[in-house]
């Protein structure tokens, strides 16, 4: 059916073959080769997309390591979008882990050494006088619906990487969310780096200077945000992997004036809420009845704590936050407690009889022993932090502990889910941030480890907001998306199944999320479109971009 699509294209010859958006390589038909000046520029045989995918898949497998495969796929993306996304869609689970988590972490760590061709827009602090010009040079005349930006201060759990991530996040929007890649744009905000390894690396491609902070940083970010508001008022602005001192602050600053979204706070909060809803569906309890310990009180940790919808007064009763200085309690003082954590600070007297370490801190194990939490979530960047003693203490405190070690990439996971499953005799309800193989239950059955990664929901949240053209991404929209995702949980049918849909089903799950989000925008009366709520599903299906070539007609006024 997609071969019925007709595109008016204004490129010819070499420029057509080097345009990843329009290039078809050996799939150009005889007629197109005649019309676009390609006869003599391509070998004779005309391939189908299936044949091209088979060839590319073989080439991919001639590379041995995930990082070599990541580089291969990056090159393919630079050559031909339809082929790239077709190949990824055909081998979704296998290849998502190559272009995204966990392999993307290695690709970003080695970005400067693997560098071949730049992608998206680089806005660098000392060049800010030409920011608008640079921005318009690349975006002029384009109908941009999505901008993914990062300042790369807190990339996954690997910290400050100077430049990186936004293009992988943007590709996931297309692959799992159906966003047209021609309408999405990734931006690196290069404000320097405090990573010594990068600063002393002669090959580092970013701006080799210490990170700009304070007023100067805020002004730089503001200049960028105002540019988007001016030129693309409807566009969704997605923030990724900002540092913990900026992420929440920037979100609060802009979320009422533009459709902005922080993935680590809101996307992670939403996907974890969905996994929690599924888990309490299995344990037949309520969110409000859980006792939560969150290990790692950064952007993700706080996003999760807030997304559960527990009221401010309730928060201090239900949540125990543990960070690098142990339990967040009063006597840590303002230097060790960020203002955003205030509502979760525990009174000291509550802990006076609990042993501390030499530094006077209450460690995770002691917190688990005392609180007997039903839920333990890790977003600390500290691999292995959920030791056997911690996990066994969880099991002593409740029959079916909910344990989500969410730190990425795989080597930073707080506990290998296989171990957590063994140490709890298969009773733990588990979900991780990176993909892991199933664990074995004592009865020999496989227990599927749900991948609680924000990629299962952020493309749908974004698509829903773009579809409804809401000028805001409200909490109500995010919760509606989380509820819809939770309703798709395989564990609701079979308690031994994964808590969240398998990644193979991520495109379908994200579409459902998008529909719920757009419907919610209508319910809140903040949609910017003139069609009606009952049309949301059809409009969503129509708007989805699918990797398919269609037929090209040469037209000087056509797309470039
Ligand atoms: N699964 C997902 O979808 C998902 C989403 C977002 C983040 N994450 C992961 O969560 C982790 C944190 O991400 P973030 O964006 O919140 O980063 P962040 O920098 O905002 O927060 C990290 C927090 O962990 C704390 N921390 C650092 N070392 C610690 C230690 N040894 N013990 C206890 N706490 C420690 C820091 O003080 C900080 O508060 C990363 O590994 C990231 O990959 C996963
Ligand atoms: O990038 C991911 O895989 C999820 C998340 O945004 C993270 O920072 O770890
Ligand atoms: Mn992230």
UniProtKB/TrEMBL annotation:
Residues 265-522 form the Malic enzyme NAD-binding domain. GO terms for cellular component: cytosol; mitochondrion. GO terms for biological process: malate metabolic process. Keywords: Metal-binding, NAD, Oxidoreductase. Residues 77-255 form the Malic enzyme N-terminal domain. Divalent metal cations. Prefers magnesium or manganese. A divalent metal cation binds at residues 240-241, 264. (S)-malate binds at residues 408, 453. The active site is at residues 100, 169. Its cofactor is Mn(2+); Mg(2+). It holds the Pfam family Malic_M. One of its GO terms (molecular function) is NAD binding. Belongs to the malic enzymes family. This is Malic enzyme.
